[in-house]
Design goal:
Length: 121
C-alpha cells in the first residue's frame, strides 16, 4: 500500500462478502502482519471495522518497521466501540490520524496474513 498523507490520511478498505461472523470458533484476536521501511514517514497506523471502530497501533513509528511485524488486536477493543462482531462488513487499514486528519508524509507499507485466531499466535 503506497501512502501519501498530504491530504491527511491514506486508507485501503475491503468489503467482506462472506465470513462476516467474527464470533465463531472462539476467535478473539485479529492478527495483521506488516512491514514498512526506515525511509517511510512516521505516521500512525490503524485498523477500522465497519467504517466506525478504530484501533491504532501502539507504536507511533510502526510505518518505519523494516522487518515483518505481528500486530495482535483483541476483538473486544472493537466490540467496546459498538461493533457487532457477528456482522463485520468491512475492514480498513490506514495511515495518518483518522479522526483528525492533518498533512503528513508518504511511504510504502506491506500487509500480509490478516487472520482471526482464538488466541494470539
Amino acid at each position: 500500500m503506497s501512502y501519501d498523507n498530504a491530504v491527511g490520511k491514506s486508507e485501503a478498505t475491503s468489503v467482506l462478502a462472506s465470513n462476516r461472523d467474527w464470533t465463531v470458533n472462539g476467535v478473539n484476536t485479529l492478527t495483521i502482519w506488516f512491514r514498512g521501511s526506515g525511509s517511510n514517514a512516521a505516521e500512525p497506523m490503524y485498523v477500522a471495522l465497519n467504517d466506525s471502530a478504530v484501533v491504532t497501533n501502539d507504536n507511533p513509528d510502526a510505518a518505519q518497521a523494516a522487518t515483518w511485524t505481528q500486530w495482535n488486536i483483541d476483538l473486544t477493543r472493537f466490540a467496546d466501540q459498538g461493533v457487532n462482531l457477528a456482522n463485520v462488513n468491512s475492514i480498513t487499514l490506514g495511515l495518518g490520524n483518522r479522526s483528525n486528519p492533518v498533512a503528513g508524509g508518504a511511504g510504502m507499507m506491506y500487509f500480509d496474513d490478516i487472520r482471526l485466531y482464538p488466541l494470539a499466535p
